[in-house]
Amino acid sequence: xxxxxxxxxxxxxxxxxxxxxxxxxxxxxxxxxxxxxxxxxxxxxxxxxxxxxxxxxxxxxxxxxxxxxxxxxxxxxxxxxxxxxxxxxxxxxxxxxxxxxxxxxxxxxxxxxxxxxxxxxxxxxxxxxx
Length: 130
Known about the structure:
Number of strands: 0
Distance between the termini: 32 Å
Structural class: mainly alpha
Helix content: over 70%
Shape: globular
Number of helices: 7
């Protein structure tokens, strides 16, 4: 399958996740940490980006969907999520848009304060790096 086909196959999942995130924000819906991570995994757009990077290479399915590549994409997504949400939390909570942020999800799900949630996120980041 060509990179263009990989993109067309993976992009709708990204679009669905972005729309779901926008709906959550509009409705001020808070997701559990697990649900937040599942949605963010798709709304980050890492998998469709891999297919774009592969244009001109035309990665075969056995490479594009290789478990190592998919695991690496999952790690990249998690690291981007944690970094982005830790950095943006203060700005988001200042404007009342913190409901869709891993720090808020950690606080909500695990009953931690901001400092505890940040520490949990740093520990999670360290574990993903391994």
